[in-house]
Each structure stands twice: as structure tokens, then as C-alpha cells.
Amino acid sequence: MLSGYKRIEDLSKLKGGRVRGQNVAVGDHPDPERCKFLIKTRVLRNWPSQWHSSFPNGYIEFSRNIPFADGTIFDLRSHTINGKQTYIFRYNYAMDVLCRRCTAINELKCCAEIMQAANLVALAEFVMTKVAPDFQLRPDPLHAKRAILANLQALSLLDLESLVQLAKSSAIAAPIEQRRAA
């Protein structure tokens, strides 16, 4: 099976630098389609011979924090960031789509945790009309949350990104409405 996603095996070829550093994607699984977290970043430094007391084989430093590993320094010996196994992928158009999709799904999961019941049910109705138009959704917040989380993978990238904007606005507006009512 052909795939547009390539894991970088020879890490010595990565080019670093603030301006011309190579764009890469960093994930938590060797198969980028199965990553729960996939972040676009840039290689700042690829130093295979520096800081031998902490990193015997050297390290790669990224331009932004890798949230799932809580760090920016990739250990070349263990292929980890702060002890968490990480994988580096070539960044191209296919990887860009996958990164944006993964980011949108994670943001929707976070928003679903803090949304008010009415907004959660409305979001679930929108998701279900896109995925299964004939599905009858119960107006129960717990059922709505399950329906959202179970069907996010079936949505297109455009739908996911528009849902993120909608969910963020309703998740932010909910506490403001509560303060006004008080």
C-alpha cells in the first residue's frame, strides 16, 4: 500500500535553523494515521555531538513544545522527548492535512468536556446530520457527548475545522452567559 507519510529513519539528514530549519511532524505512534497527537514543528538544532552528559548520542531541538511529551528536545539515542516515545515524519501536503485533522479532533474533545448541556446536544445534532442524517439523537448530554466522540473520524477536515470554531465560541460564551445571569 502506498502512503504519502514517511517516517524519517536517518535523523542525521535533518537540517536545523530558525529560518531555514526543516519542517517536520512529531507524533506519538509509528503510523501517523494512528497518532493521537501529531504536531507540526521546525527543527531548530540537530546536534548529534553536543551535550553528551545528558544526551550521549546528541539531540534534536524543535521550535515549539510537543504537548503530549511536554518538551522540545528529542533524544537521538532513545528516540524520546522527556521519556515519551516519539516519531518524526516528513512534512508534506498529506501530512499537513493529517496534522490539521488530528488537532481539530483533539480540540473538539476538549471543548466537549466543558460545554453546557444544550450546546453539547446541538453540536451532537450537527455531527449526526453530517454522518447519519436519519439517526434520532436523544436530548441527553451524556448520549450527545458519546455520539460526538464516536463520529468525529467520519467528518471531513472542513467540517471538523468549522465545528472547532463553533464549539470554541459556544464553550467560551457559556461561562459569560452564566455570569450575566447571576
Describe this structure in words.
The longest helix has 25 residues, at 157-181. The protein is elongated. Helices cover 40% and strands 20% of the residues. The N and C termini lie far apart (58 Å). It has two domains: 11-91, no CATH class; 95-174. It is α+β, with helices and mostly antiparallel strands and 182 residues long. The strands form two sheets. It has a five-stranded antiparallel sheet. Strands 5-6 form a two-stranded antiparallel ribbon. It has helices spanning 93-114, 117-131, 141-151, 157-181; strands at residues 23-27, 38-47, 59-66, 71-75, 80-81, 84-85, 87-90. Helix 1 packs parallel to helix 4 (157-181) and helix 2 (117-131) packs parallel to helix 3 (141-151). A hairpin with a 2-residue loop joins strand 5 (80-81) and strand 6 (84-85).
SSE inventory with pairings:
Blueprint (H helix, E strand, L loop, with lengths): L22 E5 L10 E10 L11 E8 L4 E5 L4 E2 L2 E2 L1 E4 L2 H22 L2 H15 L9 H11 L5 H25 L1
Antiparallel strand pairs: 1-2, 1-7, 2-3, 3-4, 5-6
Outline of the structure:
This protein is of the alpha+beta class and 182 residues long. Helix content is 40%, strand content 20%. The strands form two sheets. The protein has a five-stranded antiparallel sheet. The chain has a two-stranded antiparallel sheet with strand order 5-6.
What key phrases describe this protein's structure?
alpha+beta; 2 domains; five-stranded antiparallel sheet; two-stranded antiparallel ribbon; 4 helices
Characterize the overall form. elongated
Class computed from helices, strands and strand pairing: alpha+beta
How many domains? The number is 2
Low-confidence stretches: none
| Share of β-strand residues | 15-25%
Strand order in the sheet with the most strands: 4-3-2-1-7
Number of strands: 7
- What is the share of helical residues? 40-55%
Distance between the termini: 58 Å
Contiguous helical run count: 4
| Element-level helix/strand string | EEEEEEEHHHH
Q: Over the alpha carbons, how many angstroms does the gyration radius reach?
A: 20 Å
Largest sheet, in brief, is: 5 strands, antiparallel
| Mean pLDDT across every amino acid position | 85
